[in-house]
């Protein structure tokens, strides 16, 4: 009866009577050789890692979380991100202590979505790690357009000069801060490029970028 009033639907495939089915959970499972190193069209100058293609259950879950308010999908998405982060630590790509910086979100988009979705995932994925700190250090300035449908060159022009530092970054004892940039989707790499640029200009040592998906 409750399902008739408030129907449950899998955030990955739309199957009824469950919020997250076993098949979709399998698609999001991080394999032993993941995350993969990818080569976006615009290279940010640091390694860019992705947990999988922006397709299937991964794509639908990210969209449902960001655009349709499916807060119940934080857990599976953050769990995948947590494993990806652990792998990069195990492989020696990253070292603790570490600062995780969520990629910038437009302020009006964050308000519409009830908060910054990338920051929320980063906080959930690092919960319990004493030597990993999440800092919402960057934000986009006004007049950044929606990048959907833009070419690589247009995306780069759209974001150039429009990412700003809003919180200082500093490692222990005033040393340069080692940073991992986390994003939900890497498409052309334009946002990653600009984010890495402004963080470096602020004195941070950016080690890598890690995304839930790449398109």
UniProtKB/TrEMBL annotation:
- Please list which residues make up the signal peptide: none
Q: Sorted alphabetically, which CDD domains does this protein's record hold?
A: PRTases_typeI
GO: which molecular function terms?
Answer: glycosyltransferase activity
What keyword terms does UniProt attach to this protein?
A: Glycosyltransferase, Transferase
The UniProt record lists the keyword Glycosyltransferase: yes
Question: Does Methyltransferase show up as a keyword for this record?
Answer: no
What the entry lists under InterPro entries is as follows: ComF/GntX_DNA_util-trans, PRTase-like, PRTase_dom
User: What protein family does this chain belong to?
Assistant: Belongs to the ComF/GntX family.
Q: What is this protein called?
A: Putative amidophosphoribosyltransferase
Q: Which organism is it from?
A: Mycolicibacterium rhodesiae (strain NBB3)
* Upper lineage: Bacteria, Bacillati, Actinomycetota, Actinomycetes, Mycobacteriales
């Amino acid at each position: 009866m409750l399902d008739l009033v408030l129907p449950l639907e899998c955030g990955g495939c739309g199957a009824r009577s469950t919020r997250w089915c076993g098949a979709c959970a399998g698609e999001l499972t991080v394999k032993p050789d993941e995350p993969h190193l990818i080569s976006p069209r615009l290279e940010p100058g640091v390694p860019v890692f992705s947990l999988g293609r922006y397709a299937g259950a991964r794509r639908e879950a990210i969209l449902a979380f960001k655009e349709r308010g499916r807060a119940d999908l934080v857990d599976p998405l953050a769990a995948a991100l947590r494993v990806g982060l652990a792998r990069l630590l195990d492989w020696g790509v990253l070292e603790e202590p570490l600062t995780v910086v969520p990629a910038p979100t437009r302020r009006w988009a964050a308000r519409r979505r009830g908060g910054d979705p990338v920051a929320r995932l980063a906080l959930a994925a690092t919960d319990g790690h004493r030597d990993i700190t999440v800092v919402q250090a960057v934000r986009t300035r006004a007049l950044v357009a929606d990048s959907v449908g833009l070419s690589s060159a247009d995306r780069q022009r759209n974001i150039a000069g429009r990412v700003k530092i809003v919180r200082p970054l500093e490692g222990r004892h005033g040393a340069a801060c080692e940073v991992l940039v986390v994003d939900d989707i890497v498409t052309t790499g334009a946002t990653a490029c600009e984010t890495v640029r402004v963080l470096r200009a602020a004195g941070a040592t950016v080690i890598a970028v890690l995304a839930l998906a790449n398109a």
